[in-house]
Amino acid sequence: MGNPEQFGKTYKKLIDASNCVVVAPDYQLSIEAPYPAALDDCYDTLLWMKSHAKELGIREDQLMVGGESAGGGLTAAITLYARDQGEVNIAFQMPLYPMIDDRMITESAKDNNAPIWNSDYNHWAWKLYLGELAGRDVPSYAAAARANDYSNLPPTVTFVGDLEPFRDETIHYVENLRKAGVPVDFELYKGCFHGFDIIQPNAEVSKKAISVFIKSFKYAVDHYFAEQNTKS
Question: Start and end of every Alpha/beta hydrolase fold-3 domain (predicted)?
Fold first, then answer.
């Protein structure tokens, strides 16, 4: 669901905070093509950014990735994929309330009837995204929570509401990153449902979440770099 234009306000906040360049890939949705179509689209975009850094006016040692919900899941997946492929290095990742565990075995993912996104919607979305892989041996590039190795991933910022299905898988993801030595800024917001910051941007908790997120992003711009190994 959705398109890049929906998140224009988020892009503007990032640009205002750092004068960065935002590239938003219009990746194929699950209803059009299941995994790995969206991952391939995003990875190809990342490689394109690396090879066109000078043309875009960006630093090739500060390529950062981010997204919300399914986009957050793609963010977590693409950092794993990029690390393993060794073609492009990512300086920072921003997987916000990410969709990363198709197994739906955590307490928050089971029988969750929260507003906006619940267990039924989640089950349907995973089935659509995975296609023929659903219920089988799903790779970590499709569901990042299935990864066994979180080492050498980029510094991370994320947050999640405590009412939503992705709460526990996000917490576990953060714990695994930290165990692997990855710097992580993480916030859990009480009484918040999926996508609360976008749906109710004027709520005080949403303003706080956005402010903390932007602060972490600004810190990343000043402190996190990832030199590229080769030109492509």
Answer: 2-196
Give dist(CA 150, CA 152) in Å, integer.
7
- Domain 4-220: what homologous superfamily? Alpha/Beta hydrolase fold, catalytic domain (3.40.50.1820)
pTM: predicted TM-score of the whole model, two decimal places: 0.96
Tokens found for residue 156: 């991370």
Q: Beta strand 92-96 with 64-68: parallel, antiparallel or unpaired?
A: parallel
Cα–Cα distance between 118 and 121 in angstroms, integer? 5
Task: With CA atoms as reference, report the closest residue to 155 among 22, 63, 51, 71.
Answer: 63
What are the pLDDT digits (tens) for 83-141?
Answer: 999 999 999 999 999 999 999 999 999 999 999 999 999 999 999 999 999 988 999 99
56 near 24, Cβ under 8 Å?
Answer: no
What does DSSP assign to residue 4?
G
Matching residue, tokens 């906006």: 116
Distance of alpha carbon 180 from alpha carbon 148, whole angstroms: 10
CA distance 38 to 72: 12
Report the greatest alpha carbon distance in the chain.
49
